Each structure stands twice: as structure tokens, then as C-alpha cells.
Amino acid sequence: MSSVKRTVVPACIALATSSILPLGTLAVPAAAQGPGGAHGPASSIGGVQLEYLDRGLVGALTPEGVHLSWRLTATEVTGATAAGFTGADFTVYRDGEPIATVTDSTNYLDADVVDPSAAAAARYSVGAVVGGVEVEVSGEVTPWAQDYLDLPLQKPADGVTPAGEAYTYTANDMSVGDVTGDGRYELVVKWDPSNSKDVSQIGYTGNTYIDTYTLEGRLLSRIDLGVNIRSGAHYTQFMVSDFDGDGRSELMLKTAPGTRTTTYGPDGEVTAENYVTLPKADARAGVRHDDDYRLSTEGYYEHVVDMFAGWQDHPEVVAGNWPATLEEAFGIEQRYQYPLSDADARAMTDYFMDEYAPSRSARNNLRAFEGFVVDGPEYLSVFDGASGAELQTIPYEPGRGDDGLLWGDYAMSRIEPGNRVDRFLAGVAYLDGEHPSAIFARGYYTRSNIVAYRWDGKKLTRQWHVDSGHVPMTNPFNDGPHGGAGTSEEFGTLAGQGFHSLSAADVDGDGKHEIVYGSATIDSDGSLLYSSFDVLPEGSAAPGTVAKLGHGDAMHVADIDPDRPGLEIFTVHEGGAYAPYGWAMRDAATGEVLFGGYTGKDTGRGMIGDIDPATRGLENWAVGLRSASGELLPGNGPGTNMSIRWAADGTTQLVNGTADQDVTIDDVRRGRLLTATGTRTNNGTKGNPSLVADILGDWREELLVRTADSSAIRIFTSTEVTDRKLYTLMHDPQYRAEIARQNTVYNQPAYTGFYLASDTDFTEVPVPDVFLPGALPALQARLDQLIADGRVTGPVARQLQASLDQAQRAVARDQSRMAVQAMEKFLDRLNQQKTKAVSPGVRDVLTHHGTVILSMLR
Q1: CATH superfamily of 43-146+656-731
Q2: Which of 3, 40, 192, 729 could join 694 via S-S bond, C-beta 3.0 to 4.6 A?
């Protein structure tokens, strides 16, 4: 091994770059990325499309020595024992010399290096051994000086609103994706202005920005959503996934006129800056990127005047469903003739704002209503993950329709225009069991809409659109639409069942993801699988009445009880006396309540996790602590903001800390495991880390939080030595989809589609049948480098390249059989060569990787 050429990663990064054979670190060139080139069509070749990832080697200095951790991929698994998977074994190298062989895990403690200066000078790599042959050696890394890495950020400039309010920026939610196709994750960071708002709060906000950084801290691109996207958790969710199967992730999110992207070069210079493309109909209608649809207080007043002036023409009024006059709606004597004159419309607006609204609630101060966007175009855009370049923009479905009048925003005692109408959700789901679809949703308190899209590299295609229809009201200014059914015959019961998040999971065991929309679930084909109801108990508002489980703030979809078939859903509910349960455990396949409790109040928080290894299954807590089967356990539940798989034994820990508190990781039995000094969570009392995900090292999750001044994202990795060998959680389809949606509104933890706890029997853990689009381009890059280094020579070099090129073109055209034939030809040519044109070691390595790709294609 002393002759092996390696690449050293700077000590400030200490992350393995793309893993390859024992020939050094290779990145996949842009020309070789994915089926069909930069944005070719998605391949429908069998297997779940997931990311081709490198070894993810990370080292960190601890008082006990240098802890090393790396990935096992799903394609490397060959079997399992009760304690872990079997497959590739690993040789650990320090400074080019082997120091250990690891077979039962994917981590190692080098206790011989404890001095910081010695650690800073050390170079580590990991070689994968299959069948006695070393088939891959990672890039070299130097250890972190501690258990974290700081990723430097470039904070947007401060700003001032039209009302004269100054604001600053903090780093907020995050996501990850391999946007460059090199087998390593890039980090996508949302910037939140200090005046970001909940949809119920009045006032202007600064713009929202979405940045993409490499793990070295290089800013690749920035998306400025512009003034027409209000800032706040409910308004922007950004989905990061390789939607088109080209080996590189795209970004998909809601945009508007004024949204623009900036691309940065290696030296930080701006190389491109462009607005999103206005749809042709909007461009013809005169829509411009400098349009500002934000309402001032005067603008909202005029908006209401216009609404009242056209009252008699509203479709609900014409149909006889709503009062014919505003006086009737407000419960006062008739004052004016209809249609209202401008003067009469203004007089009625004055009455509405100054008398009627305050009489409904002292909190109704509509004279101060400003900063909302209640009209103007709304878009859905797809962006190149690396450059930020816009790939397509289409109208957002469904449009708002109005300012919330039909959605019930004026009907409750608290009048809140722009509230229920602007509740957005998003996610990623494998609806066909193989390819990622984007899920975008609008509304959940009343009308609920969910739309599924596929991106093929050229255009978005709508797969289905679920719409409950509006909940009918007799008076839009005094009614109770919560709990009612929408007008859709098929989807009407979906109204009011959604949560502040959603999940994608295979709840019915058909190999395809369903969309768990709170108390209802949409099947993979867009049909309604079920909507959960139950009987209101004694002490409720209407005992004996059948009612929806309804809306809630927290939801967890996982294999909570390993002794029951399938998945379970644990939820909390805020319907109070009008909801059958304050918390409930349901069968994910049927929506049936397995156990739960009525509380008569808004039960706002709940969590699940294996916090007690002595108790079978994942414990759950909202009101009291219970086992997976519902048995009441002693003590109270711990925190409910975010969980993390941090410990070596597979138990669950909790992430705590809000406002100006340092972020901590706490274990119920062992106490505090980590104090992340100088870091902060996001989203107020929600206390959300920027991200919790398995982005590096072994199967355990990293903690990503912002520094107090938002100058950096601090990435923490666990340094507890574990004896468990599990493939990266990112190769579990449910977990990968859950990570993509973690930034959605009230951030919830990501869960695997299998039972993952301290007592997991790994012989029962499924190994997904995967297709990794980046694997074939990576093999092409390996071969090209071998040829450049003189390790593969002569005519066979060109023949091998031609075979891989044929395979790549076949994949791009979705021609599975031809791709298989090309890979078989590659392996035949490789192993027919007995000359020095291909050295024996190189032949073994290329044969291994070619065989892995062939197995994915078949």
C-alpha cells in the first residue's frame, strides 16, 4: 500500500472526499454526471433511486484518542446477524500504514493518538475489503481538533422594511443533497430575517434567502425569494432531492415575481444572476419582477373596499350560500343599496374595521394590518442545486383564490386575513416505489390541497392533485369552519385533518410511499386511503358524536411497536373539547386508534423514541410516558423539540435549548451527553436545530446548529464507539424522504421505515433494492483516471470506456436491457485481458464495481 497515491483533505475540513479504489480520490466530472448529462431524463430502471455516496469518513480527536467513523452503503450489505449487517470489512490506515481491521462496525478509536499536534499531523483513510480484495480506499482526512466542524457562512446584508423597521439575519432550517455529483453532501441553508412572522402576525418581513454551500464552506449559489414571498416557517419549505435521476440534487420551492438567483465562482465572484422566468400568461398581463404585492395598511383598507364593493357578485352570494348583504352578515339593519357605491363601500369598511371586528375579539386590529401578500402571482420553481439556475417555473397549484375569505380567515372570532389560506407544506415521496416525487400542499385547518409532481430534467409533470374543496359556510364573517367537510365527494373529509408537517411512508406495505397528512392519509395513487374519526367521549363538547381527530402540531410515523405488523402514527391534537383525543397512537395502514387519551385542551407537544432500553419498542409521551403498546410507565417524558440517534447503543436522545440557551443533547438515563457551547436552535419555543441527519460517518445522526452569531453552521458528530454495523440511514427510502421534509414548518424528526432501537434484530431489517444514478458516472471517472495514470493501457482502455459510455446512454434512454448488455460487455472485456494492459489489482477493483452496477441494473 505504500505506493498508493492519495489525496489529502485540508485539516480544517477533515472529511473524506469521493471514495474510490486504491488509486486516490476522484470527483465525478460534470460531463459524466448522471443519466443524460447535466439534466437528462430520469431512469425507471428498477430499484429505489437514492444517492451514490462516498465513504463519508470523519475523524475527531477525543481525550481517549482519534475517533473515526465511516459509511456502509446498502450495496455493500451481504447478510445480517442479530447485532448488525455483514458485507464489506474495513482496513483502517494511518499515514498510509494499516493499523486495524474492522468487521463488526463502521467506526474505530485510535487510542495511540491523543496529542493534539500528533492528531493534526495524522492522515487517515479506510479501505473496503470484499472477498479478501481491497476494492476501495477513501480519501485521506485529518481529524477535527474536537467533535465538531464549523462551516463558515456568508450572512446576507441587514435591511429596513417599508415601515422603517430594521432587521438582521440568522441561519435557520437546512437540508442536504449531493448537488455536484461527487458523492458528498452539500448543505442548503435558509436565512431568516429577524422580523419573520407566523401567518397570524401582522407586519412586513425581510426577504428569505436560500444558500448552497460545499463542506469546505464555498458558497455555490443564493436564491433571493424577493419581497412577494413573506418570511416565516409557514411560507417557505425547500425540497432538495435528485428528482430527475441525473446524480445531482435539485431544489424545488414556492417562488414569486422578484425571485432571483445568484451563482458564485470558485473565488466568490458572481458569475450569473437571473430572475425566474415569468409564465407567458403573466408576462402578457404585464407582471414585472419589480412588482410589490405587499399590502400597506392603506392598501389593505382599499382591498377590503374593493371586496365589499363587489359583494353582490361573489359566487357564494350569487348561489345563495352567503348573506345577500354585508349588513345581514354583520347582524345589523340594512343601510345601503347594492351594488355599493364607493362611498358606501368605504363606510361599510370603516364599520367592519372599527366596530364589527373589535366586537368579535379585542385582538382584531385590522387598521394595523400590513405586510401580507394576499394577491399576485404564485409560482413553483425548480433550480439546479449547484448553480441555483432556474430550470422551470410554473403557476403554484392551487392559487390562493382570495385573501382567506373562503378559507375561513374572517369567520372565527379572531379575524386573520392571509392565515389559513397561506399554510403551506412540502415533502418528497417515492410514490411509485422507485423515483422521488415532490409534494406541495396548501391548507389544513379547512380546505386542504396536496399536489404531487415529477421532474424529468426538462419539465414538471403533475401526477395528481387532491383537493378537499372549501368547507361550506353560511356566513363567512361568523361561522365555525373547523371540523367541517369540504365540498369534494371523495376528499371532503380531508379538510381540517392536516398538521404543521407531513410524512411519506409505506403504510400499506405495497412498496410505495403514502402521504400521511396528519389525521388522514393519501394513497400513492392520489386516492384517499382513510380519514380518521372517533366518538367524542364524556366531558367533551358533544359526547357520543363522531368527530375528526383533526389538526395537531406534532406527528411521528415509524415502526414504533415491533410486535405489531407495519408502521404506527403517534400524534397530538389541538381540538380540545371538540376532538376525540388530545393524543393518539394509530395503525398507519388503517388509521385506527390503538390507544389514546382525551384531554379537552390543545395538546401541543409529543415525541417518540427508545429512551428506556428495558422497555420494548419506542416509548411515546405527550401526557405521561407510555410504552409502544400503551402501558403507562413511571416518570414523565423528556423534551419534545427534536430527537437524535446519537448514542452507541441505538437509544434515542433529545436535543434541547431555546432562545439564548446553548444547544444540548440529553439522555434520560445518562444525563447530558453534549453541550454545544455558543450555538443556538431556531424557530422560537420550537427549539429546532438547523438539521438532524445522518450526513457523515456511520449510521448515527449529526447535529447541525448555527453559532450564536450565525457566522457558521457547527456540525457535531458522535464519538461514542459503537459495535453496531448498519448501512447509512440515507439509504433507507423513508428516512431519506423524511430528511428532505424536515425543514417543513414545525420541524419533526426523521424516522426509518424499519424498527430502529437498542434491541433491533438486524436480521429483520430490510436492505433496500437500490439504484444509485451516480455509481456509473463514478466508475467512468475511475476508469478515466486509471487510464491517465497508465494503469489501464492499449486498445482495452478505449473498449472499456466505450462499454461504459454505452451503458450510460442506455440508462439515459431508460433502456434497461441495453444497459445490462453494455455492462456485461465491460466485464467480459475486462476479464478477457490477461496482459499487462490491466494490472491484476486494478482488474479486481473494476470487476467489483462493475458487478455492483450490473446488479442494480438487472
Answers
A1: Immunoglobulins (2.60.40.10)
A2: 729
